[in-house]
UniProtKB/TrEMBL annotation:
Annotated stretches, region: Disordered: 480-507
Source organism (scientific name): Streptomyces palmae
Membrane topology, from the record: Multi-pass membrane protein
Membrane-spanning parts: 15-37, 52-70, 82-104, 110-129, 141-162, 168-190, 202-221, 233-251, 272-295, 307-324, 336-355, 361-380, 454-474
UniProt-annotated location(s): Cell membrane
CDD domains listed in its UniProt record: MFS_MMR_MDR_like
A GO BP entry: response to antibiotic
Entry protein name: DHA2 family efflux MFS transporter permease subunit
Record-linked PROSITE patterns: MFS, SUGAR_TRANSPORT_1
Keyword tags: Antibiotic resistance, Cell membrane, Membrane, Transmembrane, Transmembrane helix, Transport
Length: 507
């Protein structure tokens, strides 16, 4: 539907504050519990075998239901699903903070994932339909990209402070005031443009196939980490995921109102964004985990000091997103921000492969963090904007959900894949150096650091691959300041070689 003079909401910047606040809550919740986990495990007597479920329950529900949540936002209205998601997330957080045993905590984490899957795509699609002017969209996505990229590191800092000075339960309770403020602000300031809702019926077969397929995939990587890649249960889950997701693609091509219209993912630019962002997250998530353990166990940092050590990475992300990405997004093609951005982050990762028992934070870790933050911030922001460009307003929710899905699945894959690589390298190093070891404790730490270093080399390679994919696949030209002409299939791959304007949702 052509829009030559779209209505500009005067309250849009205030709305952005509350959309960004909700996104921060969802993103930081993926990591805030990591630092608190040992304390929660001890307090609730959670077994070693069940420990991983505190993380996995959230990832499974979130990753599995994101497409469903995105489509619900398109069907019911984004503001409504946004507010429902906020209230539900706050309630689940209260339930988790009050947990008296392991099943109660795991149920709370799963519920957080369910409501997060409703909240995250609603937030991004609200942003996409609220900011339609080129320069404003660049600023809005710059702020949102910085939060999406830096939220995980913020979670590590906040988790450290709350765990050390208060109680592990506050890593849950902290969400309640954030959700209350965001809900009040959303009701007061968020306005959803008319005509952007999708009145079609819900694609139930698509929901079932997508959800079970994604859950099988995420759970498969989780099982690979604990049981091994060749374990029967791991292979069965991967096979099930492949069958279910292939069936999902077949069904989506045939039903009248698909859960995920294939035009959303077959567009070359969006496919490039989803693939490269997913790969980048694979590298990043594993790194957060390794360096948290490295700083605490090897370097002897407290939880708070560990969190503060990540601050330069957050500063780099905010700078890359708001100062580099935002300023250049309307002047150069997205691939010339995303490709070099991921390459700079990879150089930062390359520095971190050199860690040993006596590594200086200032000399090696700090510059590595700064480069990673700058690179990821620069790449994330145009990626998020381009991923929602050119979709029909009725598909904005599900296009947004695909970004979150690539990040969640990427996070699960990264954590499992890199942890497995690190554990294997640690074991083999320990065995090969056992005979010459004078101090077993020293050997244990050396083996651990060697394992981290090997895994970080893999993460470096994955980030380089993300840079190549972004440079080769994304071919949108330099954004211009005009609205795209309306067309029957507008934005779905046609005219990809032309100068493509970033900002507009309407066709």
């Amino acid at each position: 539907m052509p829009e030559t003079a779209p209505h500009v909401d005067p309250r849009r910047w205030k709305a952005l504050v509350f959309i960004a606040l909700a996104q921060l809550m969802v993103v930081l919740d993926a990591t805030i519990v990591n630092i608190a986990l040992p304390h929660a495990q001890e307090a609730l007597d959670i077994s070693e075998g069940n420990k991983q479920w505190v993380i996995t329950a959230y990832a499974l529900a979130f990753g599995g239901l994101l497409l469903f949540g995105g489509r619900l936002a398109d069907l019911l209205g984004r503001k409504k699903t946004f507010v429902i998601g906020l209230i539900g997330f706050a309630a689940a957080s209260a339930f988790g903070g009050a947990a008296v045993n392991a099943p109660m905590l795991l149920a709370a984490r799963a519920l957080q994932g369910v409501f997060g899957a409703l909240l995250a795509p609603s937030a991004l699609s609200l942003l996409a339909v609220t900011f339609t002017e080129v320069k404003e969209r660049a600023k809005a996505f710059g702020i949102f990209g910085a939060i999406a990229g830096g939220g995980g590191a913020v979670g590590l800092i906040l988790g450290g402070v709350l765990t050390q000075y208060m109680n592990w339960r506050w890593t849950f309770f902290v969400n309640i005031p954030i959700a209350v403020i965001a809900t009040v602000g959303a009701i007061a300031y968020i306005h959803e443009p008319e005509g952007s809702r999708n009145p079609a019926k819900l694609d139930i077969p698509g929901v079932i196939l997508a959800t079970t397929g994604l859950v099988s995939l995420v759970y498969g990587f989780t099982r690979a980490e604990s049981e091994g890649w060749k374990a029967t249960s791991t292979l069965v889950l991967f096979a099930a995921a492949a069958v279910l997701l292939i069936a999902f693609v077949v069904v989506e091509g045939k039903v009248r109102a698909p859960l995920l219209p294939l035009r959303v993912v077959t567009d070359r630019n969006r496919a490039g964004v989803y693939a490269s962002l997913g790969m980048a997250v694979i590298g990043m998530f594993g790194l957060f985990l390794f360096l948290t353990y490295y700083l605490q166990i090897v370097k002897g940092y407290s939880p708070v000091k560990t969190g503060l050590a990540f601050l330069p990475m957050i500063a780099g992300m905010i700078t890359g997103s708001t100062q580099i990405g935002t300023r250049l997004m309307n002047r150069v093609p997205a691939r010339l921000l995303m490709g070099p951005g991921f390459a700079v982050a990879a150089i930062g990762m390359l520095l971190l492969t050199q860690i040993d028992l006596n590594t200086s934070y200032a000399a090696l870790i700090l510059p590595g963090f700064l480069l990673m933050g700058l690179g990821m911030g620069t790449a994330f922001m145009p990626g998020m904007s381009l991923a929602t460009y050119g979709v029909q307003p009725q598909d904005a929710g599900v296009a947004s959900a695909m970004i979150n899905t690539s990040q969640q699945v990427g996070g699960a894959i990264g954590t499992a894949l890199l942890n497995t690589i690190a554990a294997s390298a640690t074991t083999s190093y320990g065995k090969s150096h056992l005979a010459e070891a004078r101090n077993l404790e020293h050997l244990k730490l050396e083996s651990m650091v060697h394992g981290y270093s090997v895994a970080i080399w893999w993460a470096f390679g994955i980030l380089l691959l993300a840079s190549v994919v972004a440079t080769v696949m994304i071919n949108a030209g330099r954004p211009s300041h005009h609205q795209p002409a309306a067309g029957s299939g507008g934005g779905e791959g046609k005219g990809a070689e032309q100068d493509v304007p970033v900002p507009v949702m309407a066709h």
